[in-house]
Amino acid sequence: MSGVRYEGIEKRFEAFTALHALNLDIPDRTFLALLGPSGCGKTTALRILAGLETPTAGKVIIGDRDVTRLQPRDRDVAMVFQSYALYPHMTIADNIGYPLRIRNVDAATRAKKIAEVAQALEIDPLLDRHPRQLSGGQRQRVALARAIVRDPAAFLMDEPLSNLDARLRLSMRGEIKRLCHRLGATTIYVTHDQAEALTMADLVAVMRQGELQQLAPPADVYERPANRFVALFVGNPPMNVLRAEVSEQGIHVAGATVPIDGARHQRCLASAITELGIRPEDIRLAAPGSPGALSGEVYVVEPMGNETLVDVRFGDERVTLRAAKGFTAAIGSTLGVAFDAADACFFDSSGSTKVHRARNGEAG
Amino acid sequence: MTDVVKRGTTMRRRERLQGAGMDLALPYLLLAPAVLIVLAVLVYPLWDGLRASLMFYRYGKPLDFVGLDNYIQLWTDPQFLNSLWVTVRFVFFSVALETILGLALALFCLREFYGIRILRTILIIPMVITPVVVAIVFRLIYASDAGMLTAFSEAMGGGQVQILGDPLKAFTGLVVLDVWEWTPLMFLILLAGLQSLPQEPFEAARVDGAGPWRTFVDHTLPMLRPVLAIAIVLRTIDAFGTFDQVFVLTRGGPGEATRLLPILGYEMAFKFQQTGYAAALFVTIGLIILAFALFAVRMLKRAGPDT
Ligand SMILES: Nc1ncnc2c1ncn2[C@@H]1O[C@H](COP(=O)(O)OP(=O)(O)OP(=O)(O)O)[C@@H](O)[C@H]1O
Ligand SMILES: [Mg+2]
């Protein structure tokens, strides 16, 4: 096991730059989630680490070796491909056992490991089939099995759960997390699902259009997003972003003035903030017209079972808040909401976070 | 107004034409010309050849119905047995060499590098040259008096090179000619096959730790097998019928060293006028090829991953 480092990795495909000077330092035994929207360069970053793609500039370090110019087989990594990349002419058992066969593991040990992994991923009844005879989700688990059957320096997983049904995804999420923890393996886990990133990772790297936005533990990414993009990408429902102005009286937002404590007030005044962000769980219902309350009309009410999501509209702006289960309100009726400025963060016009929330509130 | 009416009637007529009866008959009507042509140029000669193979001929006239005598005689005829053995050897060595060379070239040309397109094009040229011309060229190379090889040898201080006069060398020379001419076909088919293979499994194999040789044995060959098998079968069937090159290069000689079955059949029919016997020989060749093809297809199906 060993840490992984990207040093100024840049990747250009002809005129298009898929990665801009990516720097990532992933300590040994860390589970890193590489999170970002489709096309932001996650797969490219992973393929560069695997050695399937050569970076235009920069270095890749695994452990203390510079592997930038090494063949994939000399890097000792295991990869789960986004498109599975199973061996079509081999049975599932042979697929899973292939990395072991290459390493001349004897047949008995191989069979034992294959059975073990297959059972953990619930694909043991499929071992005699060929990939063609499997569903997408089953193939994906075979790809996962083929990676975890061995003991590499690092696991690279490219959206390994994207094709599973909701129940299986949840249980696999836990399984993978446990497994990586048990193996103590450095893992780079690519996903566009922020819930996966938050629940599984020790570190989350948020990317956008080939640029790293933030590298931090999940709680920090959630509580202290580096910018507006991260704030909106992480969390479901996403953070509410409202136009905000700061004056000596406090924060002016959606027709109300919200008081803010002295030190953060000063920083807001100093940094020309234009917007504030507030998580849905940090907004509460309040009597319309009470001091500091924003008054709007109900846009839609969505009961989720354990809670209720309420969308409230103020002119051309909207916020979502979490209300208790059983909450009802007529669409179009007037509703007051309030929040504590200590829970909000503030962005400047470029979208970067100038003032973070005051305390680490408890999510959810 | 009238337009609308007219359109209405044509539509009704078309509806009638498209009725159930027309639907049933149309495919047969469309197929009829093709079927008639096939019957005339393929089935009738085949049928006639089959009939001829059961007759005893003299001076090109059928004299007697002899049943399977021609076939029975064939299997005790040393000339036929020799030709069969020569043909099998010829087919085996030619096709094997063409497959190996074709595959090697295809693997080499799979990579992208500067000038690869021109190289691919050049490699295909032998295939598009008329076989007779190829044979004439090789005759010029092999000829013992003025051939290129002799010229070479003499320039190096050696003597004449006897190729077409020596049984083993003539046979080898024939195989070399065939390999030169048909490796490009193998190359082309296998290159297309290789290019159509999915790329991801190969990437997975690289990450899983397979080197070039393991990748070739474990993945390239198994995935390429259907294409490889079809190419080999096609080429084998074709090689069984090789005629022009031998006819120009050696006429089957020296002695019987390169007398492939088609050459023997040709001589039977046109030199010795044994039309019935020659017909039986060609029917036998056909049956051998058919048996081989059926066997190959069976093997392909059984060995394929679809089980
Ligand atoms: N071989 C290539 N040639 C040209 N452009 C490429 C190539 N591979 C990727 N790209 C581009 O690089 C960008 C990043 O691609 P990448 O596959 O890394 O995205 P991703 O983050 O994995 O997206 P997704 O979540 O959809 O899988 C995309 O805009 C893509 O179009
Ligand atoms: Mg991807």
Written account of the structure:
The complex is a heterodimer of chains A (364) and B (307). The model of chain A has no long low-confidence stretch (mean pLDDT 90). Chain A has nine helices and 22 strands. By secondary structure, chain A is an alpha+beta fold. Chain A folds into two domains: 4-224, Rossmann fold (3-Layer(aba) Sandwich); 232-355, Nucleic acid-binding proteins (OB fold (Dihydrolipoamide Acetyltransferase, E2P)), CATH 2.40.50. In chain B, strand 1 (55-58) and strand 2 (61-65) form a beta hairpin. In chain B, 76% of the residues lie in helices and 3% in strands. The model of chain B has no long low-confidence stretch (mean pLDDT 82). Chains A and B meet through strand 6 and helix 2 of A and helix 9 and helix 10 of B. Magnesium ion binds at residues 42-43, 82, 158 of chain A. Chain B: InterPro entries: MetI-like, MetI-like_sf.
Shape of chain B: globular
Q: Estimate what percentage of residues of chain B fall within beta strands.
A: under 5%
* Through-space gap between termini of chain A: 35 Å
Our Rg estimate of chain A from Cα atoms comes to: 24 Å
Secondary structure tally: strands of chain B: 2
CATH class category label of the largest domain in chain B: Mainly Alpha
Main CATH class of the largest domain in chain A: Alpha Beta
Order of strands, main sheet of chain A, comes to: 6-7-8-3-9-10
Q: What structural category characterises the helix and strand content of chain A? A: alpha+beta
Q: How many structural domains of chain A?
A: 2
**Run of helices and strands of chain B:** HHEEHHHHHHHHHHH
Largest interface: A-B, 25 and 19 residues
Q: How confident is the prediction overall: mean pLDDT of chain B?
A: 82
Q: What Rg of chain B, in angstroms, do the CA atoms define?
A: 27 Å
Describe the main β-sheet of chain A briefly. Answer: 6 strands, mixed
Gap from first CA to last CA of chain B: 64 Å
Which molecules are bound in this entry? adenosine-5'-triphosphate, magnesium ion
Quaternary assembly: heterodimer
Shape of chain A: elongated
How much of the residues of chain A is beta strand, in percent?
25-35%
The CATH topology name of the largest domain in chain A reads Rossmann fold
Keywords (chain B): Cell membrane, Membrane, Transmembrane, Transmembrane helix, Transport
Pfam families (chain B): BPD_transp_1
Domain ABC transmembrane type-1 (chain B): 84-296
Transmembrane segments (chain B): 21-47, 90-110, 122-142, 277-297
